[in-house]
Amino acid sequence: MNRKVTVVGGAGNVGATVARSIANRELADVVIIDIADTKAQGIALDILQACPVEGSDTRVVGGSDYALSAGSDVVVITSGVPRKPGMSRDDLLSVNYKIMQDVTANVMKHSPDAILIVVANPLDAMAQAVYRLSGLPRERVIGMAGVLDSARMRTFIAAELNVSVENVTAFVLGGHGDTMVPLPRYSTVAGIPITELLTPERIAAICERTANGGAEITKLVGTSAWYAPGQSSARMVEAILKDKKLIEPCSVYLQGEYGVNDQFLGVPVKLGAKGVEQVIQITLTADEKTALDKSAAAVKELTSVIGV
């Protein structure tokens, strides 16, 4: 029996990108669930018809009936209202929380053994909502944030130094928003810390652009980004289905790690078949710890509003 991945909100731009990436890589059969029933069916059919071009035998179906998703190994939740220009992720809090309530109930009814990847914004708060609503252990509810934020930082570093992105690693911790914490000391080019390759001014500019990466695209396009978030989500799915033990920054429920208790926050973790298999703790400077605490406080403020 093939593995199964369901993408909730799959008729949207992010969800469709996730679904197509999984199908192209032949990672699992894909189910696209969306309240826009016929659109979900159409996008599923379009992706299915692209599979022969890619040489993929992935089966893809779509619709609004969660019964299609029964027995999924991984469920990616991309549902929610996207950001508009001038709107912060925080503005989305109440409306997207209501969506998470409905989605989580349906997902748990049909796929109680799945690992859940949450992509809806505000990311950390929505991941915590899904965690509370699902009743799942913390290893099986993961927010997609740091993979995307680190990819953006890698892009800017590679462009600044005119090197291949394959040589660049970057770590971005904290909440998925303006208070995220890029870590230049742990960001490298072919193993060389960027602190030895760039001036403090250029590093500061890269960190600032990384933190505002989503807003920059929203301003240009008129809605949230979708290619990079979709690819980042698919990378997490692949790590789980292939049990890769991949270390990436993700938003996870912390219980004392980094001095943070009982809330979601972006930190480096090991992704494998069980979901989050290890929270990796790295040494932070006093300034980095202060920035991370500030980011955690910003997330806490949001989760307090919706009581999760």
Description of the structure:
A 6-stranded parallel β-sheet has the order 3-2-1-4-5-6, with helices on both faces. It has a 3-stranded antiparallel β-sheet with strand order 7-10-11, with helices on one face. It has a 3-stranded antiparallel β-sheet with strand order 12-13-14. The longest helix is centred in the C-terminal third of the chain and has 21 residues, at 286-306. Strand 12 (246-255) and strand 13 form a beta hairpin. The chain has helices at 13-25, 37-54, 93-110, 123-134, 146-161, 200-211, 213-221, 227-241, 286-306, and strands at residues 4-8, 29-33, 60-63, 74-77, 115-118, 141-143, 168-169, 172-173, 181-182, 188-189, 192-193, 246-255, 261-272, 275-279. With 308 residues, the chain is an alpha/beta fold. The protein has 2 domains: 4-143, NAD(P)-binding Rossmann-like Domain (Rossmann fold); 146-306, L-2-Hydroxyisocaproate Dehydrogenase, Chain A, domain 2. The protein is globular and about 50 Å long. Its EC number is 1.1.1.37. Residues 148-301 form the Lactate/malate dehydrogenase C-terminal domain. Keywords: NAD, Oxidoreductase, Tricarboxylic acid cycle.
